[in-house]
Design brief:
The mean pLDDT is 85. The radius of gyration is 27 Å and the shape is elongated. The chain contains three helices and three strands. It has a domain of 37 residues: YefM-like fold, CATH 3.40.1620. By secondary structure, the protein is of the alpha+beta class. A hairpin with a 2-residue loop joins β2 and β3. The chain has a three-stranded mixed beta sheet.
């Protein structure tokens, strides 16, 4: 169940409310009893590992494109 505090109390206890939110507690800030803001901890994202897709590229992946397809790709890159 979230903890609900009014704005005045939130001003007085701002640092401790942030610390509680960082520990996972849901903190709701209310204005005259009406909820207006929710404190939520921002979790650090984990670094993604390169090469996470299974499988391998076939050697043909690195072959030159056929002339017609190459023209289409080069034409589209000029639009950008």
């Amino acid at each position: 169940m979230p903890t609900k505090v009014n704005i005045g109390e939130a001003k007085t206890n701002f640092s401790s409310l942030i610390a509680r939110a960082q520990k996972g507690e849901e903190i709701i800030i209310a204005n005259r009893g009406k909820p207006v803001v929710r404190f939520e901890a921002i979790l650090e994202s984990k670094k993604r590992k390169l090469g996470f897709v299974k499988g391998e590229l076939p050697d043909s992946f690195f072959d030159e494109l056929p002339e017609g397809e190459l023209i289409l790709w080069e034409g589209n890159s000029m639009i950008l």
